[in-house]
Write a structure and sequence with these properties.
This protein folds into three domains: about 1-110, Sandwich (Immunoglobulin-like), CATH 2.60.40; about 120-220, Immunoglobulin-like, CATH 2.60.40; about 230-340, Immunoglobulins (Immunoglobulin-like, Sandwich). About 0% of the residues lie in helices and about 45% in strands. It has one helix and 30 strands.
């Protein structure tokens, strides 16, 4: 449930925004990560503001006048989707006016224990097919707004042998993407042999009534586009290589290097390396010049799990690597640690 009030706030004099409280099971939830998205038809692919709730669950987001949706996430304990709490503003956008603050209460719920399935919310059902036949084992992702990739999905469910899926999501707008990865878990970078698809009516508005999506058709990955995106060959590549060690100086095998354009190193990376070998060495190719944030992780796709190995070129996450135009080679060594 989301409660909304509009009033003038002394601390907001001359400004506008959204303030409120995050709760879980009726109690204030500190440390929840909140993001504000432009409401469609504006581009809602990226958050326009973010903050973290304080000790009493309180938060403030300064925003210009406009219409927005809010999401809130927190992982209090455990790994995978079962350990994630999630909340969102309701089906109607929050309208912010000049010089005033909207007061919002967001109640969080468990993200789920069955492949990202929420236990409360509106039922959304559909069927996935490939070449006219039901496709069992495909993963269906519900992204907030017009976001279409990365680990920040609200729910992820898998189709049964008959291609049918059923999910529960809070009211709001969602972009629905589907992926079938033979022998995989549907996480990480799309592979050449995968099948992909999306709901043709994205973004879907989910209200309080159950929604049937009908049939979603999978297609093969466009091989030429895949090769171009991953920049598998060609002159002018920007190569980064380095050595990955643990805190004791030992060589680390089986971790991937990632390049992100986002300082928080979240969402879809710009490039991913092959896993390091026994020598701890990695090599990664950037698609284009620019500023990137370089990190290392023992797995890719989805939220960070306890026991994972992680590290970054700059542990503070502030200093990027600068890659200029033209073919070049740069070297950066990274120390990883186990995350708990």
């Amino acid at each position: 449930m989301v409660l909304l009030f509009l009033y003038a706030v002394p601390g907001y004099a001359g400004r506008s925004g959204i303030e409120g409280v995050v709760r879980y099971n009726g109690s204030a939830m500190a440390g929840a990560y909140l993001e504000a998205f432009n409401a469609p038809p504006e581009n809602a692919a990226k958050p326009v503001a973010s903050t973290t709730s304080g000790e009493e669950g309180a938060f403030i987001l300064s925003l210009p006048p406009g219409a927005y949706y809010l999401t809130a996430r927190k992982r209090p304990n455990g790994g995978g989707a079962a350990g994630m709490l999630y909340g969102a503003s309701g089906p109607d956008p929050i309208t912010v006016v000049s010089g005033g603050a909207i007061s919002v209460t967001i109640d969080m719920g468990d993200r789920g224990k069955t492949g990202g399935l929420l236990r409360q919310g509106t039922d959304v059902t559909g069927k996935v097919v490939y070449l006219g036949r039901p496709e069992g084992g495909a993963y269906v992702y519900f992204y907030p707004g017009t976001l279409e990739r990365g680990p920040d999905y609200v729910s992820r469910v898998r189709t049964g042998e008959n291609g049918v899926f059923s999910a529960k999501v809070p009211p709001g707008y969602y972009s629905i993407k589907v992926r079938f990865a033979e022998g995989g878990d549907g996480m990480g970078t799309v592979r050449k042999e995968d099948k992909i698809g999306e709901y043709p009516g994205n973004p879907l508005e989910v209200g309080s009534e159950a929604t049937g999506l009908g049939t979603i058709v999978l297609r093969d990955v466009d091989q030429a586009a895949w090769e171009k995106y991953h920049w598998a060959a060609g002159e002018g590549r920007i190569i980064i290589h380095g050595l990955v060690t643990d805190e004791d100086g030992g060589l680390v095998e089986g971790v991937h290097a990632f390049l992100y354009s986002d300082r928080k190193m979240v969402g879809k990376p710009a490039a991913i390396s092959a896993p390091t070998g026994p020598d701890g060495l990695f090599e990664i190719a950037a698609q284009r010049p620019g500023l990137y944030y370089l990190g290392v992780r023992s797995r890719f796709g989805g939220p960070v799990e306890p026991g994972e190995l992680m590290g970054a070129y700059d542990a503070s996450g502030i200093k990027p690597v600068e890659l200029g135009a033209g073919r070049q080679v740069k070297s950066y060594d990274i120390v990883v640690r186990e995350v708990w």
